[in-house]
């Protein structure tokens, strides 16, 4: 036996915490995938176009409203344009701040909730403080915004999931969207991440 074969097996060390956003030096592997997570007469929420990297994957979250959030009385007496805020997909963390003593039973109905469950049961939601999921093992970063009836968000999830099926969930009570969602294959994400190309190599 060689020196190396005689050494006891040890688990691999945990990788260094990945960045909170997709790496800028890589071109991702892209998948053809889209799914409606929830819809009603008032709104629709969908995800699509996964961009996959060795350290995680990004999804585009699309939010569409049927009605304009502008009220019928366009200007208030002081000259400001009044907005019906209950028709906006409130900012995931400015409309509701986790860790401030609120619980699920006290969540405002107009807060759009989005969640992801990995095949091994680990999960993270848009309501988790600082975007850290169960056991601090998944991070979710959100950016984006929109206008009157169209909102686009970037969801960045890290690390990559294990093989199996990922559950994508959403709920938006104020818009009549009950908890529901869709599934996507984690194996396809893992394979697409292998196709990520270093940008300097690509541009050489």
How many E-type strands?
12
Number of helices: 2
Order of helices and strands: EEEEEEEEEEEHEH
**Which overall shape is indicated by the principal axes computed on the Cα atoms?**
globular
Beta fraction of the residues? Answer: 35-45%
Biggest beta sheet attributes: 6 strands, antiparallel
Structural class: mainly beta
Arithmetic mean pLDDT: 75
What is the strand and helix layout of this fold?
Blueprint: E1 26-27, E2 29-30, E3 34-39, E4 43-53, E5 56-65, E6 113-117, E7 123-125, E8 139-146, E9 150-158, E10 165-172, E11 177-185, H1 186-193, E12 197-198, H2 199-203
Antiparallel strand pairs: 1-12, 2-4, 3-4, 4-5, 5-9, 6-7, 6-10, 8-9, 10-11
Any descriptors?
single chain, 204 residues, mainly beta, 6-stranded antiparallel sheet, 4-stranded antiparallel sheet, globular, disordered N terminus
Overall description:
The structure is a single chain. This protein is mostly beta strands and 204 residues long. The chain contains two helices and twelve strands. A hairpin with a 2-residue loop joins strand 4 and strand 5.
Structure summarized in a few sentences:
This protein is mainly beta. Helix content is 6%, strand content 37%.
